[in-house]
Amino acid sequence: SEVPSASQSLFRIAIVGRPNAGKSSFCNQALGKERVRVSPVAHTTRDVVEIAWPILPGHDVRLVDTAGLKLRRNQPDTRQVSELQAKRAIERCEGAFFFVDASQGIGQTDLRIYHRLQTAYTTVIVVVNKWDLKFPERIWRSQREARKDIEAALQADHGVIFHSTRSSFSVPTFQRLLAAIDAERQRKISTTLMNEWVQQFKRDGRFSQVHHLVAVKYAIQKGVAPQRIYCFGKFASGYTSRKNELVRKSLLRSFQEHFDIRYGPVFFSLRPSKKSNAK
Length: 279
Description:
Elements: E1 9-17, H1 23-31, E2 49-52, E3 59-65, H2 77-91, E4 95-101, H3 108-118, E5 123-129, H4 143-154, E6 159-162, H5 171-186, H6 191-203, H7 208-213, E7 214-223, E8 227-235, H8 241-259, E9 266-272
């Protein structure tokens, strides 16, 4: 693959999903030409294919087409190699289009793939493909029903795109999406604004249970792309990893609402306060 110029920001997007979810067809449609082999037979794509996608000015955007994933044990050696390549590709990408087949809905295979995406430090956009199918061939009756079902299954709220390779490709839609994702990933937040958020969090009655577990003193932004936040406070006795997960999710919800974070990810590290006079 080509090396981006100094004036361009590299932005790789992994195309991820179960076999035969329409990932390669999407790549060809987005590129406006046949660059990736497409077949109705599952597992046609076995190697990771990285292709330049000139869609966003000032950015070297790459589509990274991956093999369909099942993430099961006891698969043939060729499938294991393909899935290992796909996993490594996901880990080095800044974003991922997570393809869900509208004729299949969300199943255990999709949940396994999503879990892999969660651990890969990447922004996830759910692409519901084959939306041109008519109900009942399509699992969901409406986009509202699909969003609700997907959010419940993933236990998270992600951006969702409803797509069909039979329809015309909307370049402006994806330009706006990629620009918004990149801006959010690179956003720097001042210490003053972080402290304002902490004070709001402490006043928010929705998180009263969390306030009994940890008294948050202050927070800092430790890094961007993706967002990394360190929260410091005083922990109650008997603080466990299970309670830590509740605190982390509450902080994430509050942070996303306060700073209008729509795409993520945001990683929180909870640490004992070192400043006795921090407010």
